């Protein structure tokens, strides 16, 4: 306290909300937005694509191959190549993260729905469900655990990957890392890693909770 | 596109300690070193845990945690704590982040082997070590190699980011180019890294084709087409 370098807690208190750009609170909300968009957009794109891959079987192999390749590409060069199109904006970081998310979620959607037992599907048909109603009320709920397992991977890795964007000045909490490196100082790194891991754990926990709520029959089955 | 011509057409980029060949070799060297050390730790550990069934919680937790930990943060943390006198403050986090994918997939591969197959091996009189080496590992090989591939993808990407903390390699073109607004270098370097990652990916696919026992891969194919036939 007092003289000397500030302790971790002092540093947090002093930088939490400075009123200027780049306070921890600002970076945290940037980070939330930049990781949430890829998760949601990834799912929104992977669902129809996955369904198309089930409907037209030949489509799955090439789609999976393309996204497999995209998934293998490091994020930093992708950000750099995108800069010429989207400039130095959060979008430049968000777009590659959407591709990574789709690479995980498309197989999850396809596997999840293909795993719906044939007799269940036929029962729905026999009960007069239209294809859309069958999808929404029977197939998607049964596929939910597999899709959510994919979403958990996507959520956690998106939250941590956003920080690489700091290397082009768009990294949410990752900005704490570049700041700490340019002006050698430990607290920002520790706070950055801590908050990112915490965000990831919270996101993971929320998805586990969502799965419980979306698949009540799993619990009922376990109880009996 | 002009930037690419500037970058690849400049003869100065093809020689000297900061030229493309040297940077490419550095990238390969650091990635291979990290992957090698990680394999040395993760494969035996995964085999042990998968075979004995003890300590699988360690595997699950390490896998989840590794995904959540930001690589850039860990790199900066290690460099701030250990300095930049050698490359090890950067290589250690590379290795740490490369371990979990190999560990998880090796463990899952061994644990996922058909128990009947394992019992049959014991029934034929094989000992624990023989069962592991002659039955479990060959059958689990596709997953073990998948772990290695995922880990390699991770290492190539992290080596790129590590250029920020002073490590050599292809990331230098991108990081230094960005800092000095030399966009020819940024784009040229990015293209090189993307190509490098693609070659690694293709390389692992080929290794898998060569090393996985045809019995194992063919049987998987039979099972696949059986499950999906109308």
UniProtKB/TrEMBL annotation, chain A:
Record field: transmembrane: 32-54, 66-87, 93-113, 142-169, 189-210
Cross-referenced InterPro entries: ABC_transp_perm/SBD, MetI-like, MetI-like_sf
Keyword Transmembrane: yes
Main location: membrane
Superkingdom: Bacteria
PROSITE patterns registered for this protein in UniProt: ABC_TM1
Subcellular location: Cell membrane; Membrane
Keywords per UniProt: Membrane, Transmembrane, Transmembrane helix, Transport
Membrane association type: Multi-pass membrane protein
A Pfam family it matches: BPD_transp_1
Segments forming domain ABC transmembrane type-1: 28-208
Family per record: Belongs to the binding-protein-dependent transport system permease family.
PANTHER family recorded: GLYCINE BETAINE/L-PROLINE TRANSPORT SYSTEM PERMEASE PROTEIN PROW (PTHR30177), OSMOPROTECTANT IMPORT PERMEASE PROTEIN OSMW (PTHR30177:SF4)
Protein name: ABC transporter permease
Lineage: Bacteria, Bacillati, Actinomycetota, Actinomycetes, Streptosporangiales
UniProtKB/TrEMBL annotation, chain B:
Membrane topology: Multi-pass membrane protein
Entry-linked InterPro entries: ABC_transp_perm/SBD, MetI-like, MetI-like_sf
Segments traversing the membrane: 30-50, 57-81, 128-146, 152-174, 186-207
Source organism superkingdom: Bacteria
Cell compartment(s), UniProt: Cell membrane; Membrane
Main location: membrane
PROSITE patterns per record: ABC_TM1 (PS50928)
One Pfam family this sequence matches: BPD_transp_1
Residue ranges occupied by any ABC transmembrane type-1 domain in the UniProt entry: 24-204
Keywords: Membrane, Transmembrane, Transmembrane helix, Transport
Family statement drawn from the similarity comment of this UniProt entry: Belongs to the binding-protein-dependent transport system permease family.
Record-given protein name: ABC transporter permease subunit
């Amino acid at each position: 306290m007092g003289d000397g370098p500030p302790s971790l807690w002092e540093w947090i208190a002093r930088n939490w909300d400075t009123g200027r750009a780049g306070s921890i609170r600002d970076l945290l909300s940037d980070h939330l937005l930049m990781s949430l968009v890829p998760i949601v957009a990834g799912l929104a794109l992977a669902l129809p694509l996955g369904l198309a891959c089930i409907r037209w079987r030949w489509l799955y192999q090439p789609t999976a191959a393309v996204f497999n390749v995209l998934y293998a590409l490091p994020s930093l060069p992708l950000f750099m190549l995108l800069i010429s199109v989207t400039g130095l904006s959060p979008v430049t970081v968000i777009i590659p993260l959407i591709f990574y998310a789709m690479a995980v979620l498309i197989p999850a959607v396809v596997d999840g729905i293909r795993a719906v037992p044939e007799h269940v599907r036929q029962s729905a048909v026999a009960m007069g469900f239209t294809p859309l109603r069958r999808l929404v009320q029977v197939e998607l709920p049964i596929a939910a655990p597999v899709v959510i397992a994919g979403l958990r991977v996507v959520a956690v890795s998106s939250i941590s990957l956003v920080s690489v964007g700091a290397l082009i000045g768009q990294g949410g909490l990752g900005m704490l890392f570049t700041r700490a490196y340019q002006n050698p100082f430990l607290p920002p790194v520790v706070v950055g890693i801590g908050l990112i891991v915490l965000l990831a754990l919270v996101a993971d926990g929320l998805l586990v909770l969502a799965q419980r709520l979306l698949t009540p029959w799993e619990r009922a089955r376990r109880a009996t | 596109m002009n930037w690419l011509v500037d970058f690849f057409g400049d003869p100065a980029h093809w020689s000297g300690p900061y030229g493309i060949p040297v940077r490419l070799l550095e990238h390969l060297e650091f990635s291979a070193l990290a992957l090698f050390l990680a394999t040395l730790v993760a494969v035996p550990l995964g085999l042990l845990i998968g075979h004995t069934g003890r300590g699988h919680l360690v595997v699950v937790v390490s896998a989840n945690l590794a995904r959540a930990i930001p690589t850039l943060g860990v790199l900066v943390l290690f460099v701030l704590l250990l300095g930049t006198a050698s490359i090890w403050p950067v290589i250690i986090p590379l290795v740490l982040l490369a371990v979990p994918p190999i560990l998880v997939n090796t463990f899952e591969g061994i644990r996922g082997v058909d128990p009947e197959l394992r019992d049959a091996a014991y029934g034929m009189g094989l000992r624990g070590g023989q069962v592991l080496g002659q039955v479990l590992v060959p059958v689990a090989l596709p997953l073990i190699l998948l772990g290695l591939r995922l880990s390699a993808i991770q290492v190539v990407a992290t080596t790129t980011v590590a250029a920020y903390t002073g490590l050599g390699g292809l990331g230098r073109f991108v990081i230094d180019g960005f800092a000095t607004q030399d966009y020819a270098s940024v784009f040229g370097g990015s293209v090189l890294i993307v190509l490098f990652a693609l070659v690694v990916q293709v390389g692992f696919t080929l290794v898998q084709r060569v090393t996985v026992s045809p019995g194992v891969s063919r049987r998987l194919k039979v099972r696949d087409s059986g499950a999906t036939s109308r």
